[in-house]
Amino acid sequence: MINWFQSLEFVNPWWLYLLLLVPLAVFWYLKRLRDQQVFMTISSTKPIRELRSLRSRIYPFLPILSLLSLVGLIIALARPQLSLKEEEVKAEGIDIVIAMDVSSSMLSQDFKPDRFSVSKEVAKSFIDKRIYDRIALVVFAAESYTQCPLTTDHRVVKDFLDGLQCGILEDGTAIGMGLASSVNRVKDSEAKSKVVILLTDGVNNSGYIKPMTAAEIAKEMGTKVYTIGVGSRGRALTPQSRRGNGEYLYRMVNVNIDEQLLTQIAESTGGKYYRATDEESLQAIYTEIDALEKTEMEITTFKRYSEEYRPFLLGAMLLFFLEVLLRMSIFKTIP
Hints:
The protein is of the alpha/beta class. It contains twelve helices and eleven strands. The protein folds into two domains: 2-85 and 309-328, no CATH class; 91-292, von Willebrand factor, type A domain (Rossmann fold). Helices cover 41% and strands 23% of the residues. The two termini are 44 Å apart.
């Protein structure tokens, strides 16, 4: 109800200035009521209090009906309207594939709580900004597959991101496989721009498709690839083995990212390579990609209005007639 009232627009807002009369009316009524009081001294008011009926208790509040009726009438005169905005988008967005490394090294704790959790959250923030784009999600480790095909239902994509876990694929880093699966997602797309954002924290050591072969395919398909290397510089607490119950065992190891390969992939397709050493730099990278990959939209906006004065006018009339009815019946006084 509050949100509905906040959405109202008034055609004749100057009528609302009459609401300033409401506190004056309240002051006048209280002063008049006080002037009409007659005082007398008696030993005890207990017998009189016991004689007070429900009618006598309600009567002083009767003018509130008139006051509310006046407020409703003033609002009705201001002609409240509810505006309904609609948009027609006359241009295509961009097809974007987010290819995310899900190997165990993504659980390294040089990011808080780890690289994988931060990467998912920052990706979701990026998705929220791409209102008109179709987005797909590809995951890879020693192999790759499509987690979510291209869709404009961004809630579904984010739900898949939330459900991602490291260890769902055989451990390893198949950058070529991840890129090839991503390109395959957009090969039949008719979008004006096709983009792959490939995020990894390691060196290509698995898969039967070479990364540069996949990059050549992306170039032939007119797909631009942005690559992101995730990991601090130096050493990081990284999973090295696993217990029988699935718990990872960590130790400090050197952070090793094949930045030369990732740079070659990006530059060969007209994209760019980025290094994210913490959450802030990863957010900045996605912000830059968001700014680089924009499509001009021709948007026609129009408004439809619905008149909302009727409930206020009807309420004012009902309250007014209710007060008149009560004064002429239950609260009727003899002159």
